[in-house]
Design brief:
By secondary structure, this protein is an alpha/beta fold. It has 7 helices and 8 strands. It has helices at about 10-20, 60-70, 90-100, 115-120, 135-145, 175-185, 190-205; strands at about 5, 25-30, 45-50, 75-80, 105-110, 125-130, 150, 165-170. The strands form 2 sheets. The chain has a 6-stranded parallel sheet, sandwiched between helices. Helix 1 links the parallel strand 1 (about 5) and strand 2. Helix 2 (about 60-70) packs across helix 6 and helix 5 (about 135-145) crosses helix 7 (about 190-205). The longest helix is centred in the last third of the chain and has 18 residues, at about 190-205.
Length: about 210
């Protein structure tokens, strides 16, 4: 190859380390999204959490479901899981987990959706719990629609999220740490709004 493009610094470093690619042949081009105006959400009792990720094992939906099962009973929340049912057996196991944790009324498996914008506008918090990533389109979409985000610190996520500025990074497969960050956002409308505004501005300026 004469030129190899990567969509995050982490991907380019991985090419050099694992694939033994000459770094001089690598160039960085981040993924991008269309600009959106800042979208301020109304303060309401029910807080909507969204995760857009195909149902593949490394997206680790289980981590999010387990964290949500530990949210204080006094907090009103709902979780929408959107993505292609790529692995039907995984979907069934996750649905069984939701039933066993008595979360059936709170967690919705919506499958693949074409009109993602409408779901992003109804959401209040965007989450991504992947065990690995390149540079996440879901995070770009969350932030573009002024959502505060919580994501695992994998791949290029740290190149997009500044801790406590536009979201939070947590260790992969750590439901307790995820719960801590979710609680911060669930219980603080002003924090959600501030992080969402910062994320929207960062996307419009850089991505």
């Amino acid at each position: 190859m004469d030129l190899i493009l990567g969509n995050s610094i982490k991907v380019i470093n991985q090419l050099a380390k694992d694939e033994l690619v000459n770094k001089k042949k690598c160039q960085l081009i981040y993924n991008g999204v269309e600009k959106q105006k800042f979208f301020k959400r109304k303060k309401k009792k029910l807080v909507n959490i969204i995760m857009i990720a195909n149902f593949i094992s490394y997206k680790n939906h289980k981590m999010l479901i387990n964290a949500c099962s530990l949210i204080n009973k006094n907090v009103s929340w709902k979780l929408d899981l959107i993505g292609n049912f790529t692995d039907p057996s995984l979907v069934e196991s996750l649905k069984s987990l939701v039933v066993s944790l008595k979360l059936s009324k709170k967690v919705s498996f919506l499958g693949q959706k074409k009109n993602i914008d409408s779901f992003l506008k109804k959401a209040d918090i965007g989450v991504l719990t992947s065990d690995e990533e390149g540079f996440s389109n879901s995070l770009l979409e969350y932030m573009s629609f002024s959502l505060p985000v919580v994501a695992t610190n994998v791949g290029g996520n740290s190149e997009l999220i500044d801790e406590s500025f536009n979201g939070f990074l947590v260790k992969k497969n750590n439901s307790n740490e995820l719960l801590t960050k979710l609680n911060l956002l669930l219980n603080n409308y002003n924090l959600r709004t501030r992080l969402g505004r910062n994320g929207n501005e960062r996307i419009n300026k850089n991505f």
